[in-house]
Protein backbone atom coordinates (compact mmCIF):
# COMPACT_ATOMS: atom_id res chain seq x y z
CA UNK A 1 0.00 0.00 0.00
CA UNK A 2 1.24 3.48 -0.83
CA UNK A 3 1.27 5.86 2.08
CA UNK A 4 2.94 9.01 3.42
CA UNK A 5 3.17 12.60 2.33
CA UNK A 6 1.89 13.51 -1.11
CA UNK A 7 3.59 15.48 -3.86
CA UNK A 8 1.36 17.45 -6.20
CA UNK A 9 2.04 18.31 -9.84
CA UNK A 10 -0.23 21.23 -10.69
CA UNK A 11 0.42 21.06 -14.44
CA UNK A 12 -0.75 17.45 -14.62
CA UNK A 13 -3.30 17.85 -11.80
CA UNK A 14 -2.01 14.65 -10.22
CA UNK A 15 -0.51 13.55 -6.92
CA UNK A 16 2.23 11.01 -6.27
CA UNK A 17 3.49 9.58 -3.03
CA UNK A 18 6.88 10.88 -1.97
CA UNK A 19 7.79 7.76 -0.05
CA UNK A 20 7.55 5.75 -3.27
CA UNK A 21 10.03 8.13 -4.88
CA UNK A 22 12.60 8.13 -2.07
CA UNK A 23 12.10 4.45 -1.22
CA UNK A 24 10.77 4.53 2.33
CA UNK A 25 8.32 1.77 1.49
CA UNK A 26 11.28 -0.60 1.90
CA UNK A 27 11.17 0.11 5.64
CA UNK A 28 7.38 -0.10 5.86
CA UNK A 29 7.27 -3.40 4.03
CA UNK A 30 9.32 -5.00 6.83
CA UNK A 31 7.35 -3.36 9.65
CA UNK A 32 9.60 -0.38 10.36
CA UNK A 33 7.59 2.82 10.80
CA UNK A 34 9.72 4.69 13.34
CA UNK A 35 8.83 2.74 16.48
CA UNK A 36 11.18 3.16 19.47
CA UNK A 37 12.58 6.43 18.12
CA UNK A 38 12.19 10.03 19.27
CA UNK A 39 12.10 12.97 16.88
CA UNK A 40 12.30 16.59 18.05
CA UNK A 41 11.03 19.19 15.58
CA UNK A 42 12.70 22.46 16.59
CA UNK A 43 11.39 25.56 14.86
CA UNK A 44 10.59 29.17 15.62
CA UNK A 45 7.18 27.93 16.78
CA UNK A 46 5.55 24.57 17.50
CA UNK A 47 3.08 22.33 15.69
CA UNK A 48 -0.65 22.53 16.42
CA UNK A 49 -1.42 19.10 17.87
CA UNK A 50 -5.18 19.38 17.27
CA UNK A 51 -4.81 18.94 13.53
CA UNK A 52 -6.39 15.86 11.95
CA UNK A 53 -2.97 14.48 10.92
CA UNK A 54 -1.84 14.06 14.54
CA UNK A 55 -4.93 12.23 15.82
CA UNK A 56 -3.04 8.95 16.28
CA UNK A 57 0.50 10.29 16.41
CA UNK A 58 2.73 9.46 19.34
CA UNK A 59 3.08 13.00 20.64
CA UNK A 60 5.88 13.80 23.06
CA UNK A 61 6.80 16.91 25.01
CA UNK A 62 6.64 20.53 23.89
CA UNK A 63 9.52 22.70 25.10
CA UNK A 64 9.52 26.49 24.73
CA UNK A 65 11.43 29.38 26.33
CA UNK A 66 10.51 29.96 29.95
CA UNK A 67 7.47 32.13 30.52
CA UNK A 68 6.05 31.79 26.99
CA UNK A 69 2.50 30.51 26.40
CA UNK A 70 2.69 27.51 24.05
CA UNK A 71 -0.56 28.44 22.29
CA UNK A 72 0.97 31.73 21.17
CA UNK A 73 3.66 29.76 19.29
CA UNK A 74 1.39 27.54 17.19
CA UNK A 75 2.83 27.77 13.70
CA UNK A 76 1.62 26.62 10.30
CA UNK A 77 5.25 26.08 9.25
CA UNK A 78 6.00 23.90 12.27
CA UNK A 79 2.70 22.06 11.83
CA UNK A 80 3.60 21.21 8.24
CA UNK A 81 7.12 19.98 8.97
CA UNK A 82 5.91 17.94 11.97
CA UNK A 83 3.25 16.38 9.76
CA UNK A 84 5.90 15.27 7.24
CA UNK A 85 7.98 13.84 10.06
CA UNK A 86 5.42 11.80 11.97
CA UNK A 87 1.81 12.59 11.09
CA UNK A 88 -0.58 9.68 11.61
CA UNK A 89 -4.35 9.40 11.46
CA UNK A 90 -5.64 5.82 11.24
CA UNK A 91 -9.10 6.78 9.90
CA UNK A 92 -9.01 5.58 6.29
CA UNK A 93 -12.66 6.25 5.50
CA UNK A 94 -11.43 9.11 3.30
CA UNK A 95 -8.58 7.51 1.38
CA UNK A 96 -7.03 10.76 0.17
CA UNK A 97 -7.07 12.36 3.61
CA UNK A 98 -5.72 9.15 5.11
CA UNK A 99 -2.80 8.96 2.70
CA UNK A 100 -2.12 12.65 3.07
CA UNK A 101 -2.01 12.42 6.85
CA UNK A 102 0.82 9.91 7.15
CA UNK A 103 4.33 11.18 7.77
CA UNK A 104 7.59 9.45 6.94
CA UNK A 105 8.00 7.90 10.42
CA UNK A 106 4.47 7.91 11.90
CA UNK A 107 5.27 5.59 14.81
CA UNK A 108 8.06 7.81 16.14
CA UNK A 109 7.50 9.86 19.27
CA UNK A 110 7.17 13.45 18.05
CA UNK A 111 8.26 16.30 20.30
CA UNK A 112 8.46 20.01 19.58
CA UNK A 113 10.75 22.84 20.56
CA UNK A 114 10.41 26.56 19.84
CA UNK A 115 13.36 28.96 19.95
CA UNK A 116 11.34 32.18 19.54
CA UNK A 117 9.32 34.03 22.15
CA UNK A 118 7.05 35.82 19.65
CA UNK A 119 6.29 34.67 16.08
CA UNK A 120 3.61 37.25 15.29
CA UNK A 121 5.77 39.67 13.29
CA UNK A 122 7.25 39.46 9.80
CA UNK A 123 10.76 39.33 11.26
CA UNK A 124 11.20 37.02 14.24
CA UNK A 125 14.06 37.52 16.68
CA UNK A 126 15.75 34.67 18.54
CA UNK A 127 17.77 35.12 21.70
CA UNK A 128 20.97 33.08 21.73
CA UNK A 129 20.39 31.83 25.28
CA UNK A 130 16.92 30.54 24.30
CA UNK A 131 18.39 28.95 21.20
CA UNK A 132 20.99 27.11 23.24
CA UNK A 133 18.50 26.16 25.95
CA UNK A 134 16.06 24.51 23.56
CA UNK A 135 18.66 22.63 21.50
CA UNK A 136 20.65 21.49 24.53
CA UNK A 137 17.39 20.18 26.02
CA UNK A 138 16.81 17.84 23.06
CA UNK A 139 20.36 16.87 22.15
CA UNK A 140 21.20 13.55 23.79
CA UNK A 141 17.57 12.59 24.47
CA UNK A 142 16.33 12.58 20.86
CA UNK A 143 17.27 10.16 18.12
CA UNK A 144 16.73 12.83 15.48
CA UNK A 145 16.36 16.61 15.55
CA UNK A 146 14.81 18.30 12.53
CA UNK A 147 15.19 22.04 11.98
CA UNK A 148 13.60 23.64 8.95
CA UNK A 149 14.43 27.19 9.92
CA UNK A 150 17.50 29.31 10.39
CA UNK A 151 18.83 32.87 10.43
CA UNK A 152 19.58 34.03 6.89
CA UNK A 153 23.30 34.55 7.51
CA UNK A 154 25.75 32.89 5.12
CA UNK A 155 28.73 33.78 7.30
CA UNK A 156 30.96 30.77 7.95
CA UNK A 157 31.58 31.97 11.50
CA UNK A 158 27.93 32.44 12.51
CA UNK A 159 27.43 31.66 16.18
CA UNK A 160 24.41 29.41 15.63
CA UNK A 161 26.32 26.83 13.61
CA UNK A 162 29.20 26.93 16.10
CA UNK A 163 26.87 26.14 19.01
CA UNK A 164 25.17 23.33 17.06
CA UNK A 165 28.53 21.77 16.17
CA UNK A 166 29.53 21.74 19.83
CA UNK A 167 26.24 20.18 20.95
CA UNK A 168 26.39 17.55 18.20
CA UNK A 169 30.02 16.70 18.93
CA UNK A 170 29.13 15.88 22.52
CA UNK A 171 25.83 14.07 21.82
CA UNK A 172 26.64 11.66 19.02
CA UNK A 173 23.49 9.60 19.63
CA UNK A 174 21.43 12.46 18.13
CA UNK A 175 21.25 13.03 14.37
CA UNK A 176 20.52 16.64 13.43
CA UNK A 177 19.07 17.44 10.01
CA UNK A 178 18.87 21.03 8.76
CA UNK A 179 17.36 22.69 5.70
CA UNK A 180 20.01 24.43 3.59
CA UNK A 181 17.87 27.42 2.61
CA UNK A 182 15.98 28.72 -0.41
CA UNK A 183 18.40 31.37 -1.66
CA UNK A 184 19.72 29.63 -4.79
CA UNK A 185 20.87 29.39 -7.48
CA UNK A 186 23.91 31.45 -6.53
CA UNK A 187 27.01 30.05 -4.86
CA UNK A 188 27.68 30.50 -1.13
CA UNK A 189 23.96 30.70 -0.33
CA UNK A 190 23.75 27.92 2.29
CA UNK A 191 22.51 29.53 5.48
CA UNK A 192 23.22 29.55 9.18
CA UNK A 193 22.86 26.17 10.96
CA UNK A 194 23.25 24.31 7.68
CA UNK A 195 26.82 25.60 7.70
CA UNK A 196 27.50 23.53 10.81
CA UNK A 197 29.72 20.53 10.10
CA UNK A 198 28.15 17.97 12.43
CA UNK A 199 24.69 18.05 10.84
CA UNK A 200 23.07 16.73 7.67
CA UNK A 201 22.45 19.73 5.42
CA UNK A 202 19.63 19.16 2.92
CA UNK A 203 19.07 20.67 -0.51
CA UNK A 204 15.87 20.55 -2.59
CA UNK A 205 15.12 18.28 -5.54
CA UNK A 206 12.63 19.78 -7.97
CA UNK A 207 10.92 18.65 -11.16
CA UNK A 208 7.98 17.11 -9.30
CA UNK A 209 7.14 14.29 -9.46
CA UNK A 210 10.37 12.88 -10.89
CA UNK A 211 12.65 14.74 -8.48
CA UNK A 212 15.69 14.09 -10.65
CA UNK A 213 17.27 17.54 -10.59
CA UNK A 214 17.99 20.34 -8.16
CA UNK A 215 15.37 23.06 -7.69
CA UNK A 216 16.47 26.50 -8.87
CA UNK A 217 15.82 28.06 -5.47
CA UNK A 218 17.83 25.49 -3.50
CA UNK A 219 20.78 27.06 -1.68
CA UNK A 220 24.14 25.70 -2.70
CA UNK A 221 27.89 25.67 -2.26
CA UNK A 222 30.77 26.34 -2.47
CA UNK A 223 30.62 28.05 0.90
CA UNK A 224 33.26 29.88 2.91
CA UNK A 225 35.42 28.18 5.53
CA UNK A 226 36.27 29.87 8.83
CA UNK A 227 39.22 28.93 11.03
CA UNK A 228 38.29 29.82 14.65
CA UNK A 229 41.91 29.52 15.78
CA UNK A 230 43.47 31.93 13.26
CA UNK A 231 40.21 33.92 12.72
CA UNK A 232 40.77 33.64 8.97
CA UNK A 233 38.12 32.98 6.31
CA UNK A 234 38.82 31.11 3.08
CA UNK A 235 36.32 32.02 0.37
CA UNK A 236 34.20 29.55 -1.60
CA UNK A 237 35.99 26.29 -0.81
CA UNK A 238 33.61 24.09 1.17
CA UNK A 239 30.84 21.75 -0.08
CA UNK A 240 28.17 22.54 2.54
CA UNK A 241 25.27 20.48 1.09
CA UNK A 242 25.25 16.86 2.28
CA UNK A 243 22.25 15.36 0.49
CA UNK A 244 19.16 16.40 -1.48
CA UNK A 245 15.54 15.31 -1.19
CA UNK A 246 12.14 16.14 -2.74
CA UNK A 247 10.90 19.56 -1.70
CA UNK A 248 8.84 20.91 -4.57
CA UNK A 249 5.01 20.92 -4.50
CA UNK A 250 4.77 18.97 -1.25
CA UNK A 251 1.52 18.74 0.71
CA UNK A 252 1.41 19.44 4.42
CA UNK A 253 -0.99 20.18 7.27
CA UNK A 254 -1.86 23.81 7.93
CA UNK A 255 -2.69 25.71 11.12
CA UNK A 256 -4.94 28.70 10.57
CA UNK A 257 -5.19 30.92 13.66
CA UNK A 258 -8.24 32.62 12.13
CA UNK A 259 -10.04 29.26 11.96
CA UNK A 260 -8.86 27.30 15.00
CA UNK A 261 -11.61 24.72 14.60
CA UNK A 262 -10.49 23.76 11.07
CA UNK A 263 -8.55 20.60 11.79
CA UNK A 264 -8.28 19.27 8.24
CA UNK A 265 -6.63 22.10 6.32
CA UNK A 266 -3.84 21.19 3.87
CA UNK A 267 -1.69 23.23 1.54
CA UNK A 268 1.03 22.77 -1.10
CA UNK A 269 4.38 24.50 -1.18
CA UNK A 270 8.08 24.12 -2.00
CA UNK A 271 11.30 24.61 -0.08
CA UNK A 272 14.13 23.02 1.87
CA UNK A 273 11.80 23.26 4.87
CA UNK A 274 9.95 20.33 3.32
CA UNK A 275 12.94 18.30 2.11
CA UNK A 276 14.68 18.32 5.51
CA UNK A 277 11.90 16.49 7.42
CA UNK A 278 11.81 13.83 4.69
CA UNK A 279 15.50 13.14 5.36
CA UNK A 280 14.88 13.33 9.13
CA UNK A 281 12.07 10.82 8.82
CA UNK A 282 14.32 8.38 6.96
CA UNK A 283 17.02 8.83 9.62
CA UNK A 284 14.39 7.90 12.20
CA UNK A 285 13.44 4.82 10.18
CA UNK A 286 17.10 3.78 10.06
CA UNK A 287 17.39 4.04 13.82
CA UNK A 288 14.07 2.27 14.25
CA UNK A 289 15.34 -0.64 12.16
CA UNK A 290 18.48 -0.78 14.30
CA UNK A 291 16.46 -0.88 17.52
CA UNK A 292 14.40 -3.73 16.07
CA UNK A 293 17.56 -5.60 15.09
CA UNK A 294 18.93 -5.20 18.60
CA UNK A 295 15.65 -6.46 20.03
CA UNK A 296 15.66 -9.44 17.69
CA UNK A 297 19.28 -10.47 18.15
CA UNK A 298 19.84 -9.48 21.78
CA UNK A 299 23.52 -9.47 22.71
CA UNK A 300 24.61 -11.69 19.84
CA UNK A 301 26.26 -8.74 18.08
CA UNK A 302 27.57 -6.89 21.15
CA UNK A 303 27.42 -3.11 20.77
CA UNK A 304 27.11 -3.28 16.97
CA UNK A 305 23.60 -1.85 16.83
CA UNK A 306 24.38 0.90 19.33
CA UNK A 307 27.24 1.96 17.04
CA UNK A 308 24.87 1.76 14.10
CA UNK A 309 22.72 4.47 15.67
CA UNK A 310 25.65 6.89 16.06
CA UNK A 311 24.96 10.13 14.18
CA UNK A 312 28.18 9.78 12.16
CA UNK A 313 27.17 6.29 11.01
CA UNK A 314 23.65 7.41 10.05
CA UNK A 315 25.09 10.30 8.06
CA UNK A 316 27.71 8.12 6.36
CA UNK A 317 25.09 5.56 5.32
CA UNK A 318 22.61 8.17 4.07
CA UNK A 319 25.29 9.85 1.97
CA UNK A 320 26.79 6.61 0.73
CA UNK A 321 23.44 5.20 -0.40
CA UNK A 322 22.37 8.40 -2.20
CA UNK A 323 21.61 8.15 -5.91
CA UNK A 324 23.71 10.18 -8.32
CA UNK A 325 21.74 12.59 -10.56
CA UNK A 326 22.94 12.78 -14.16
CA UNK A 327 24.74 16.10 -13.61
CA UNK A 328 26.33 15.14 -10.26
CA UNK A 329 30.07 15.80 -9.97
CA UNK A 330 32.71 16.13 -7.27
CA UNK A 331 35.31 17.15 -9.86
CA UNK A 332 37.49 14.07 -9.80
CA UNK A 333 40.65 14.44 -11.89
CA UNK A 334 43.66 12.29 -12.75
CA UNK A 335 46.60 13.58 -10.77
CA UNK A 336 49.76 12.62 -8.93
CA UNK A 337 49.40 12.17 -5.18
CA UNK A 338 51.90 11.77 -2.37
CA UNK A 339 51.02 9.69 0.69
CA UNK A 340 52.70 7.75 3.48
CA UNK A 341 52.35 4.09 4.39
CA UNK A 342 53.41 2.87 7.84
CA UNK A 343 54.98 -0.59 7.81
CA UNK A 344 56.59 -2.59 10.65
CA UNK A 345 57.55 0.40 12.75
CA UNK A 346 58.66 2.71 9.93
CA UNK A 347 56.97 4.68 7.17
CA UNK A 348 57.47 5.09 3.45
CA UNK A 349 56.39 8.21 1.58
CA UNK A 350 55.79 7.78 -2.15
CA UNK A 351 54.25 9.71 -5.02
CA UNK A 352 51.80 7.87 -7.25
CA UNK A 353 50.72 8.88 -10.73
CA UNK A 354 47.33 8.68 -12.51
CA UNK A 355 45.42 8.78 -9.23
CA UNK A 356 41.70 9.65 -9.35
CA UNK A 357 41.66 12.63 -7.00
CA UNK A 358 38.89 14.80 -5.55
CA UNK A 359 39.67 17.69 -3.24
CA UNK A 360 35.96 18.52 -3.16
CA UNK A 361 34.39 15.23 -2.05
CA UNK A 362 30.74 16.17 -2.50
CA UNK A 363 28.84 17.92 -5.26
CA UNK A 364 28.42 21.62 -4.52
CA UNK A 365 24.72 21.44 -5.44
CA UNK A 366 23.48 17.92 -4.61
CA UNK A 367 25.91 16.89 -1.88
CA UNK A 368 26.26 13.10 -2.09
CA UNK A 369 23.18 12.92 -4.33
CA UNK A 370 19.47 12.29 -3.91
CA UNK A 371 17.98 10.54 -0.88
CA UNK A 372 17.64 6.77 -1.33
CA UNK A 373 15.91 5.16 1.65
CA UNK A 374 15.91 1.71 0.10
CA UNK A 375 19.68 1.84 -0.28
CA UNK A 376 20.06 3.07 3.29
CA UNK A 377 18.06 0.11 4.60
CA UNK A 378 20.30 -2.28 2.66
CA UNK A 379 23.33 -0.73 4.36
CA UNK A 380 21.70 -1.12 7.77
CA UNK A 381 20.88 -4.78 7.20
CA UNK A 382 23.87 -5.94 5.18
CA UNK A 383 27.30 -6.62 6.70
CA UNK A 384 28.98 -8.28 3.73
CA UNK A 385 31.99 -7.03 1.82
CA UNK A 386 29.70 -5.70 -0.91
CA UNK A 387 28.07 -3.18 1.41
CA UNK A 388 29.46 -2.25 4.79
CA UNK A 389 29.65 0.37 7.49
CA UNK A 390 31.80 0.79 10.62
CA UNK A 391 32.40 3.14 13.53
CA UNK A 392 36.14 3.15 14.24
CA UNK A 393 38.94 5.29 15.65
CA UNK A 394 42.27 6.02 13.97
CA UNK A 395 45.35 7.11 15.92
CA UNK A 396 47.05 10.36 14.97
CA UNK A 397 49.85 9.88 12.48
CA UNK A 398 48.50 6.51 11.34
CA UNK A 399 45.82 4.82 9.23
CA UNK A 400 43.33 1.94 9.13
CA UNK A 401 42.70 -0.46 6.25
CA UNK A 402 39.48 -2.15 5.04
CA UNK A 403 39.79 -5.11 2.67
CA UNK A 404 37.03 -5.22 0.05
CA UNK A 405 38.29 -8.53 -1.29
CA UNK A 406 38.39 -9.48 -4.96
CA UNK A 407 36.20 -7.15 -7.03
CA UNK A 408 35.31 -7.55 -10.68
CA UNK A 409 36.05 -4.85 -13.22
CA UNK A 410 33.13 -2.63 -14.19
CA UNK A 411 31.52 -2.40 -10.77
CA UNK A 412 30.89 0.97 -9.13
CA UNK A 413 32.43 1.72 -5.76
CA UNK A 414 31.00 4.35 -3.44
CA UNK A 415 32.65 5.14 -0.11
CA UNK A 416 31.88 7.84 2.45
CA UNK A 417 33.90 8.93 5.48
CA UNK A 418 32.34 11.15 8.20
CA UNK A 419 33.74 12.55 11.44
CA UNK A 420 32.91 15.44 13.75
CA UNK A 421 34.45 18.86 14.27
CA UNK A 422 35.08 19.26 17.99
CA UNK A 423 34.04 22.02 20.42
CA UNK A 424 32.45 22.53 23.84
CA UNK A 425 30.16 25.42 24.87
CA UNK A 426 31.56 26.79 28.13
CA UNK A 427 29.68 30.10 28.33
CA UNK A 428 26.49 31.36 26.74
CA UNK A 429 24.60 34.66 26.80
CA UNK A 430 22.27 36.51 24.49
CA UNK A 431 25.26 38.32 23.00
CA UNK A 432 27.83 35.58 22.50
CA UNK A 433 28.94 32.01 23.07
CA UNK A 434 32.34 30.82 24.23
CA UNK A 435 33.35 27.52 22.65
CA UNK A 436 36.44 25.73 23.97
CA UNK A 437 38.50 22.70 22.95
CA UNK A 438 38.20 23.56 19.28
CA UNK A 439 39.88 21.25 16.81
CA UNK A 440 39.21 19.87 13.35
CA UNK A 441 41.01 16.68 12.32
CA UNK A 442 41.79 16.33 8.62
CA UNK A 443 41.15 12.70 7.70
CA UNK A 444 41.68 11.25 4.24
CA UNK A 445 40.07 8.41 2.26
CA UNK A 446 42.11 6.32 -0.17
CA UNK A 447 41.33 3.39 -2.50
CA UNK A 448 44.12 0.90 -3.21
CA UNK A 449 44.51 -2.26 -5.23
CA UNK A 450 47.04 -5.07 -4.76
CA UNK A 451 48.80 -6.32 -7.89
CA UNK A 452 51.47 -9.04 -7.60
CA UNK A 453 51.81 -8.27 -3.91
CA UNK A 454 52.40 -4.54 -4.49
CA UNK A 455 50.03 -1.83 -3.23
CA UNK A 456 48.93 0.66 -5.87
CA UNK A 457 46.98 3.86 -5.17
CA UNK A 458 43.81 4.13 -7.28
CA UNK A 459 41.74 7.03 -5.90
CA UNK A 460 41.79 9.62 -3.10
CA UNK A 461 39.26 11.97 -1.49
CA UNK A 462 41.28 14.69 0.23
CA UNK A 463 39.17 17.70 1.17
CA UNK A 464 40.93 20.33 3.24
CA UNK A 465 37.80 22.19 4.35
CA UNK A 466 35.13 19.59 5.12
CA UNK A 467 34.50 16.64 7.45
CA UNK A 468 33.13 14.36 4.74
CA UNK A 469 35.24 12.43 2.22
CA UNK A 470 33.44 10.76 -0.67
CA UNK A 471 34.56 8.54 -3.55
CA UNK A 472 32.42 7.41 -6.46
CA UNK A 473 34.02 5.62 -9.40
CA UNK A 474 33.83 2.69 -11.78
CA UNK A 475 36.56 0.13 -11.13
CA UNK A 476 38.60 -0.31 -14.29
CA UNK A 477 40.33 -3.58 -13.49
CA UNK A 478 39.60 -6.73 -11.52
CA UNK A 479 41.64 -7.12 -8.37
CA UNK A 480 41.86 -7.06 -4.61
CA UNK A 481 40.78 -3.63 -3.40
CA UNK A 482 41.34 -1.92 -0.07
CA UNK A 483 40.10 1.31 1.50
CA UNK A 484 42.35 3.28 3.82
CA UNK A 485 41.46 6.01 6.32
CA UNK A 486 44.39 8.31 7.10
CA UNK A 487 45.00 10.79 9.92
CA UNK A 488 48.18 12.75 9.25
CA UNK A 489 47.27 16.41 9.82
CA UNK A 490 44.75 18.95 11.12
CA UNK A 491 42.48 21.54 9.57
CA UNK A 492 43.00 23.51 12.79
CA UNK A 493 43.71 23.02 16.49
CA UNK A 494 45.98 20.63 18.35
CA UNK A 495 45.99 17.06 17.07
CA UNK A 496 44.16 14.65 19.40
CA UNK A 497 45.59 11.21 20.10
CA UNK A 498 42.87 9.65 17.93
CA UNK A 499 39.78 10.53 15.91
CA UNK A 500 36.51 8.58 15.78
CA UNK A 501 34.84 8.32 12.40
CA UNK A 502 32.18 6.44 10.48
CA UNK A 503 32.83 4.79 7.14
CA UNK A 504 30.38 3.28 4.68
CA UNK A 505 31.02 1.69 1.33
CA UNK A 506 29.23 -0.29 -1.36
CA UNK A 507 30.26 -2.13 -4.50
CA UNK A 508 27.37 -2.54 -6.95
CA UNK A 509 25.70 -4.46 -8.38
CA UNK A 510 25.62 -6.03 -4.95
CA UNK A 511 24.91 -9.74 -4.25
CA UNK A 512 22.07 -11.02 -2.07
CA UNK A 513 22.29 -10.65 1.69
CA UNK A 514 24.38 -13.24 3.48
CA UNK A 515 22.68 -16.09 5.30
CA UNK A 516 23.03 -14.48 8.72
CA UNK A 517 20.61 -11.77 7.65
CA UNK A 518 18.52 -13.73 5.16
CA UNK A 519 15.57 -14.04 7.52
CA UNK A 520 15.80 -10.54 8.94
CA UNK A 521 12.68 -9.30 7.16
CA UNK A 522 10.56 -11.96 8.85
CA UNK A 523 12.16 -11.18 12.20
CA UNK A 524 11.46 -7.48 11.83
CA UNK A 525 7.82 -8.18 11.14
CA UNK A 526 7.65 -10.51 14.15
CA UNK A 527 9.07 -7.81 16.36
CA UNK A 528 6.80 -5.14 14.97
CA UNK A 529 4.84 -3.54 17.78
CA UNK A 530 2.85 -0.69 16.23
CA UNK A 531 1.25 -1.60 12.93
CA UNK A 532 -0.63 0.97 10.89
CA UNK A 533 -4.13 -0.11 9.91
UniProtKB/TrEMBL annotation:
<dbReference type="Pfam" id="PF00082">
    <property type="entry name" value="Peptidase_S8"/>
</dbReference>
<dbReference type="InterPro" id="IPR036852">
    <property type="entry name" value="Peptidase_S8/S53_dom_sf"/>
</dbReference>
<dbReference type="InterPro" id="IPR051048">
    <property type="entry name" value="Peptidase_S8/S53_subtilisin"/>
</dbReference>
<keyword id="KW-0720">Serine protease</keyword>
<keyword id="KW-0378">Hydrolase</keyword>
<comment type="similarity">
    <text>Belongs to the peptidase S8 family.</text>
</comment>
<feature type="domain" description="Peptidase S8/S53">
    <location>
        <begin position="71"/>
        <end position="332"/>
    </location>
</feature>
<keyword id="KW-0812">Transmembrane</keyword>
<feature type="transmembrane region" description="Helical">
    <location>
        <begin position="501"/>
        <end position="527"/>
    </location>
</feature>
<dbReference type="InterPro" id="IPR000209">
    <property type="entry name" value="Peptidase_S8/S53_dom"/>
</dbReference>
<keyword id="KW-1133">Transmembrane helix</keyword>
<keyword id="KW-0645">Protease</keyword>
<keyword id="KW-0472">Membrane</keyword>
<protein>
    <submittedName>
        <fullName>S8 family serine peptidase</fullName>
    </submittedName>
</protein>
<dbReference type="InterPro" id="IPR023828">
    <property type="entry name" value="Peptidase_S8_Ser-AS"/>
</dbReference>
Amino acid sequence: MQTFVLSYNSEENSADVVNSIVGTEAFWNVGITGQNTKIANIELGVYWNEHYVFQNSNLGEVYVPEGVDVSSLYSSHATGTAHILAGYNSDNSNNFAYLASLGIAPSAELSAGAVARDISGERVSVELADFYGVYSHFFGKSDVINSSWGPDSTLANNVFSGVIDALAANNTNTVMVVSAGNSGPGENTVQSMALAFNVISVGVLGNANSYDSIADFSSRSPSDFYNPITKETVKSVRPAIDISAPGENISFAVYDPENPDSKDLFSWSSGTSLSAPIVSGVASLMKSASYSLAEAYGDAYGDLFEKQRDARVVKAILLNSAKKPSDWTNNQTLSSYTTTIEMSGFSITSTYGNVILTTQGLDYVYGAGSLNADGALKHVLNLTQSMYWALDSVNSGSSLWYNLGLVEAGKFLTSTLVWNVNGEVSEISNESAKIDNLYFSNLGLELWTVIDGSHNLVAVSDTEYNNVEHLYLKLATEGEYLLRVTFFNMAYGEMPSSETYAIAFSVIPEPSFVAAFAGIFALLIIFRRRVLR
